[in-house]
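Narrative progress, year one. The postdoctoral researcher (J.K.) led the effort to move from monomer predictions toward full complexes, under supervision of the PI. The following entry was the first complex the group processed end to end, covering 310 residues in total.
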Amino acid sequence: MLAATKVDVAVFGASAVIVLAGAIGVVISANPVHAALSLVMTLFGVAVLFVAQEAHFLAAVQVIVYAGAIVVLFLFVIMLLGVDRRENVAREELRGQRPIAFLLGIATIAEFVLLTRGTSWVTGAESVVGPASGPGANVETLARSLFTRYLLAFEITSVLLVIAVVGAVVLARRPPPERPEEPEPLAVPERLHTPQLDDAAPVPATEVPAP
Amino acid sequence: MYLNQFLLLAAFLFSVGVYGVLARKNGVLVLMSIELILNAVNINLVAFGAFHDTVAGQVFALFVIAVAAAEVGVGLAIVLLIYRNRHSIDLSEVDLMKG
């Protein structure tokens, strides 16, 4: 393991800024398309962090799967549902929620900083799982581990993906057209609403004269 | 590089993601914030894997990416279904089971 060099620190700092700026863009932008593009920025920053830790294959997977496939899926759904639905991000459901959340967040960050202040564990060691290419490369080491020690988890992941694909198709499929002799299907009600006493006759508000 | 720098960055990213899940009303944006949380976990896994000089961290990060892809597929299908039924993906309007 080696200590941090200036290049390491510079790369880490630049990618950390990119990651955090993208993440904040995701949670504060009112337009969903801008949020998706900020998500791409975050994912690329994380890929740079992976490269800095010599996880070359994982960085490639991050760019191809996350930025290439998942974000495109997000954009498909955003376009399908209408882009110009802006959201009022300033609305609060609970009063006083934001300041309390802000204070608790600051406290949590202070805790993390205190916890990790004195430690100097070195990570990001070179060639943890082999160089990028050549014999004993990163991909080879990773594949050897994936197909021997973690084979069961790998197979279960494939089952999970099949289930997810089938589930997504079944959920998103349009229902088949009804036959004409069938009665009209039950429409989904706007809101389950049972008539109650105070619905029938609203009590007139009594005027209290101002003193 | 020191390990705690990666852990601090992942903690910040995780917190931003949790804020997004709690504060956003748009269903698609909530799913995006969950992606931020999963990425924070991936940063931690790779950093600890490099720290312990083992490949296991990267293998688990690979599994997390696969599970995230499955989760996004099913989650977006559910969002599509909510939109088809209620003509809105505002999650504060999905209150059918609210007492």
